[in-house]
């Protein structure tokens, strides 16, 4: 058997579990096998130019960039250094692809077969040197026994049989191996780590965001310290915590552009209440429901559903006009004509947000598959439309019926749960500490009064709560708490308990239930109708599956999130809003009775919120 094919092959360098390996042609092995060597770490200067492109040189440079980003040394990696080294990687991949095509063209001209990866070479056997590139790569190597499982993985993953040949032994393809390893094992990890570490958040803002798991989180403090960018930093922090950027390969520049456009849409009309602060507050509250209830720990939702929940919260009042749906219908505005008087604002919020995504520089959904995009869009539309208060009682009625065992074909359990979570977050501020609730209540009342002022100028009758001269604010807030907020948060806690723990039959997804592949939500087919769209394995599942080297099953689309501050909530759902609702009603009653709350409120502001909600 000729050695000619082996001599013409380039070596391949790759990394497994933090160790760098190299496959080289083995001239002195009688089996015509391959040597597997482990390289020593050689100091790398990121600013120097590469005179010769080689796998190991480029890999070392990108690995060093990763190390610096992970260790908080981002300032040492300039934009130019990053650009230059990524360009090296691109050139190397292109070169490898060209060489691989040439090698494939010559396959049928030779009967040479290369044996599968053999045992490591003897300690006293010197490495084969093959020109300038090989000499540079192999100048300092330590030979090391390769674990059996690694050898098996290499053979199984990066070799293939040639059916047209008489022999069926797997043929190692050096260029193919190098390209597969570079792309599969390194570039994907590099992109993920770079994305995660590039969501830059100022130190002072990051310190405040450490409390984002807390029900008592002060959104006004964040808004002040972030120079009026609370929405942007809440979005970045939660996208990072849930791995949204990495799993769905969101371009960071497009994310910045999208968030900037969303902030502008919320602030351009200068609404007192329906603005970016409200959107940030609702998004953080929704995160509390997810992280404290256990729906994340118990993998109730898929990655795509988590992404759609966060996105819907961010845009649920996008481009709000500061006027109610009834105002638009009574005046006959353009929006009411476009949406035929039905959920006018809610339809506009979601429509305007998706129009933003049609702009290439703001399209953060660009890497979703078509079926993923359809499901994502359907979920967001359903959730945002559910925030229309005109559908409130129907929504609560459906959830109660579901919890009482009634099942209707038109109710999709997961969508119903996600919609209630967003709707509850949207109206939850009366359950927050008095200092936060009072400020938000004053803002929404002022927005109502501004609408009443315009209605007066137009000669229209006042809408409810909009006449600043006659509205009894304390009484209106007490009624809102007792008839809307309290029942909603109560039914939400019941639903989340059911989602996490299930009933006696385990009809919702639980860790101990086997999921039917045709019923990916984990709901019992006979009793729990689900969304007809088959839920999808996310990008994270795909990429993790392609990168697994230990023979274990890759994670599926339902992933756990270590978001809680305390112990996993295997017992009752945490409900910190209960005491605040009672306290806030009491204070409104005191205001209604004419009692002076100034001193009382000042004492409240001096109190520290508990470190964790109980």
TrEMBL record:
SMART domains, sorted: HDc
Note on cofactor: Binds 2 divalent metal cations per subunit. Site 1 may preferentially bind zinc ions, while site 2 has a preference for magnesium and/or manganese ions.
Origin species: Allacma fusca
Protein EC: 3.1.4.-
Amino acid composition bias (Basic and acidic residues), ranges on this chain: 539-551
Cofactor: a divalent metal cation
Positions of region (Disordered): 99-141, 506-571
Single GO MF descriptor: 3',5'-cyclic-nucleotide phosphodiesterase activity
Highest taxon in the source lineage: Eukaryota
Name this protein carries in UniProt: Phosphodiesterase
Sequence ranges assigned to domain PDEase in this UniProt record: 197-595
GO biological process: one example: signal transduction
Family according to the record: Belongs to the cyclic nucleotide phosphodiesterase family.
